[in-house]
Amino acid sequence: MIAVFNDWRSQALKAVAFYALCLLAAALTEWMSTLPGTGLSLWLPAGFLLAALTVAKPGAWPWWMAAAVSAELTGNIFWYGHEAPPAMLFAAGNLVAATIGALIIRRLIPGRYIFASIKSTAIFLGTAASIVPLISATIGSLALAWSYGNPPFAAWSRIMLGDATGAVVAAPLAMLLFGGAAAPLRLNRSRWIELVILTIVFVVLASISLGGLVPFAFLMIPPLLWAALRFRAVGAIVSSSALMLSTALFTVARVSPFALHSVYAGYSHAGLQLFLLVATATALLMGAMAEEMRLAMKRLFLANQTLEDRVIERSESLALSEAKANKTASLLSAIGDASPDLIFAKDLESRLTYANRATLNALGASSTAEVLGETADTFYTERDEHDAILRNDAHVVATGETLICEEPVTAPDGSTRIFRSTKAPIYDAEGQLTGIAGVSVDITDIRKSEARERMLVREVEHRSRNLLAVVQGLVHLTSAETLQDFKAALANRIRALARTNGAIAAADWRGAGLRQILTDELGPYDDAQNRRIILTGDDVFFDPGTAQSLTLVLHELATNAAKYGALSSAHGRLDVSWSSDSNASGHIIVTLHWRESGGPQVAPPTRKGFGTDVIETFALERPGGKVDYHWNPDGLHVELRIPLLRQDHPLPSANDDRWFAIDAA
Questions:
Q1: What pTM value is reported for the model?
Q2: What is the mean pLDDT of the chain?
Q3: How far, in Å, CA of 364 to CA of 444, rounded?
Q4: What is the enclosing helix (H) or strand (E) of 636?
Q5: Can you name the CATH fold of 448-644?
Q6: pLDDT score for 34
Q7: Helix spans in 377-443 (H)
Q8: What end-to-end distance do the CA atoms of the chain give, in Å?
Q9: Is 90 exceeded by the pLDDT of residue 575?
């Protein structure tokens, strides 16, 4: 209840203030009247009511209507001397006109500020200068005809022009006071200085053009437009009100061109109203244009600011993305360079677009600048090699599928390398094929190892068959008086072969050395100080077949020495020496000397046994081979000559891939 009372009291106080304002406007109209005694030239209260109804809430309209009607009745009855009926008609006409005009303006101008745009200003001017005065002038002229016997519509044109001018001039000023005209101005120091200069110019030009010095009222237009353009709608309203006041003042004083000039006198002073109407409408439109420019500049500034913020944000994001991309690229480049495999990328024409360090090394380049943009035929001189690479690239581009293939290439050092290449298509964000990416792994050593394994398998198979054949021969050729002697002899010979095969297997089936064979065969017969058996000579390596045959030869010699020769006596001694030399044909001959001493006296055998057959077969089946027996009284001396087939290189070491071979069937 208190809130309602407070609101009612607030509205009542506002209505009283508005009544006073309208009453003051009526008095000012009477005082400024250019048609003395009628008060119809510039009727300001109707403009104030139009402004109040336009900006106020509909719930407050009765207060404003009551205040405006009361002020108009007071002025018409007490100041203008009208009787109550015409005074009430005048007030009713202005009330109806202002109400309809306010409804139209509120309907067509939804924004808060009436003069914020050219469109809304034009709607206000069209309503205030045509619809509102049309209604009020019609009712007012009928009231004059009914009350005073004047011809109907005799004063309609004067009332129409006066009400239109009053509404156009007064309503914007009232709307400015009520806060519904335009956004408030913010004046800084430079704007205050400009305002002072503009006021001085306005006063000077008003004194010159309206004070009777020169009859050029249009000189007031430049400061009016200056105020509208520089101070927007507020400047246009204030300057238009000042123009109305000064022009009317000088006209009432009978010194302005509108009071003295013969041209305006013929129109019953309508020139003043037209001047004020046109000047005010122009100023309001210019002010609205300035408001639109201000809003447009503000929007442009905000848009630019937003754009700048977005540009900064995008730039920062781009810089961050670029930094991340560079970091990622550096990381990927480091990873790629650390890889021993060839990693590369090509475009659709097989031109290199990326190559890691391993790829550069394979191509014989020191930097990426030497290879980027080049194709395989630039680096590989063998036509079939680079043609195969280009065909593989073209296959990936044509099919869009990943390809795994082997590509042999000739390296810059002349060696042939074999690469297993995996080539995959590269697509962009739109799914378009842009190139190929590949990884090539050097499998040359793997292929060599596989070939070596296959060779070893074949070699083992071949040697196994040979070994079985040798064992089979041993079985057939071994003879003894008793079964136990036969078993012992056969077992010893097989063990000798087994030891040699162990040595051959330890050397990856490449063969065995002469010193190793002699050590295996003669080791069991040596004494603790290793002084009975002396081995002299640089080691010589034989292929597996030769090593097996030589093992049987040395086994028979060792067995014979253990049974009948130097090794059968505690004081016996065995010296084995060997050397290598070239014969007249350039072939290398290994000469082995077997010398026994300190044993029992020996004599040539009366019959040939298995051992003799093995030794002679080993020596004589090779071209240039020879065996000589010397049955010296102090011990047997055997000279065995073993020809080697390869003679263009020196004798190899145990780990050398170059192996001497004698012709072993």
A1: 0.51
A2: 77
A3: 18
A4: strand 635-644
A5: Heat Shock Protein 90 (3.30.565)
A6: 45
A7: 383-399
A8: 133
A9: yes
